[in-house]
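Deliverable D4.2, example record:
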Amino acid sequence: MKLIKKETETEGDKRQHFPYVLETNCPKCNNEIKRDYERDHLSYPIFGKEVKEYLYCDECEHEWYFLIKPSIKLELVTKNDSKH
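Output generated by the structure prediction step:
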């Protein structure tokens, strides 16, 4: 039994949540910024493709973006060698 990854892009749900928190600092004023992707979401992400994510600093009103690449991981954990 083997699991073969196809090289295709898959679209996520309208509101795709992830078990990650992004922690960074504003490049203008150094204010700490956090984004919780379990609470917040990505809209229709394309898995395996870079997406622009925008951040906004409430302290100095600076907006900037970074690139993020959502992915899906599927792992085969059980081998079934029975011959049924």
